[in-house]
Amino acid sequence: MVVNNNTYILFTINNSYFLQMNILLTGANGYISQRLIPVLLEQGHSLYCCVRNRRRFEAEHIHERIKIVEVDFLQPDATAQLPENIEVAYYLIHSMSGGTTDFDKAEASCAENFIRLLSSTSAKQIIYLSGISNAEKLSKHLSSRLQVEEILFKSGISLTILRAGIIVGSGSASFEIIRDLVEKLPVMIAPRWLNTRCQPVAVRNVVQFLTGVLLKENTYNKTFDIGGPEVLTYKQMLLQFAKVRGLKRSIFIIPIMTPRLSSYWLYFVTSTSYSLAINLVNSMKVDVVCRPNDLAAQLNIELLFYKTAVQLAFEKIEQNLVCSSWKDAFVSSNTPQQMMQYINVPSFGCFKDVKLRPIKENPESVLKNVWSIGGAKGWYYGNFLWKMRGVADKMVGGVGLRRGRTNSNVINAGDALDFWRVLIADKEDKRLLLYAEMKLPGEAWLEFKILKIKNQLHLRQTATFRPKGLWGRLYWYSLLPFHYFIFNGMINNLLKKH
Fold first, then answer.
1. Domains, the chain
2. Residues 167-181: tens digit of each pLDDT
3. Which of 115, 217, 284, 441 sits 20 to 30 Å CA-CA off 82?
């Protein structure tokens, strides 16, 4: 089939027609991209997925129509270039949680580098997921999204902008934060921004909009607000969420809570980082309500009500089918991408605690225990002490334990795991390597490995700590008594059936 003097392959899925395209996907490790990838593949498209570190991405995405482009749009290599045959590019890069003051500059720099690299391709359309910005006074976060829109418009490539507010889906930032608040607090003394109005949209509707506008000329150089069918306050969202979960909750709003106090409140109660909490609070003071448009009708999209979106999200959670979570994004904990290079655990200048035990039961059962560690399962020994360490980490600005894990028995390199980050999750090699994201006077690794010694399978558990200065050494020695009990108890329980 020929469209605009270009030849495409036309095919059908469930009686719907699709043109096969070469699509560039930026932020491919991100929450929305992870939802978008399987849909685009099902529609027959070829994907060029842009990531800053291919190690996080390639193990989970082996497909003949996926090609990985390793590029950092914030600081692109001088030789960086994009494939020339790109037809559509999704711009899904957001930096709000990367810091409290300069994320807007980072977003502008990313956008400028993106259009510079995209200019050498044959791209006909850019699709950008932005934020609803209809209020007279905008937060820094929403202002930065407008700035990105202006930069992308200057590219000369047809631009379709979809502006969304609160996105509701299993693993989304807003969903998980609301879940934390509702499930942990029977009574909430809340700030006045809970009266702010918003128009939440289900994540599956967002994906339908993103795929629906592909090469639709009537959407070129236009902006569309996308939201669900109802306008709610944040208080109403919390109470409806509680109703879906069968929980009775009371919310009392007080006007004296300052933005800083609100940020601390959000940070300590939920799994968000402090920098993200500040930016969220600033954004939550602004109404995010859609301007009317008929895009949903044009694309034949049935918009889901908020309660329905929450119910569908919990169905995914209960079936252990959450395919992406905002907590797995590195910016959620201000973690540098270079951290994935720490897979070679150092030995010089390090303290180590090594435990080795023979495996007398089924080794697959032991491996299953290792793969289930953290989150709701806990750490197999001294969970109260682990929780106290998480509280202490929160008190000094760390991520704490509230992030949990995305799935209870599936784990991949790059995932967040309580206050650890997964560096290696290799079931064939029977090795799990974690790197600490908690606040420490040094660097820490925790490794689990099943290996054969003299024809006998053993589980080796290794805690490695590379101290920074005197404080790092004092930290290690002060925790030695706890390490003795925790690490011994942990490996002994990992060997048992659960």
1. 2-318 (3.40.50.720), 342-494 (3.30.530.20)
2. 888 777 777 788 878
3. 217
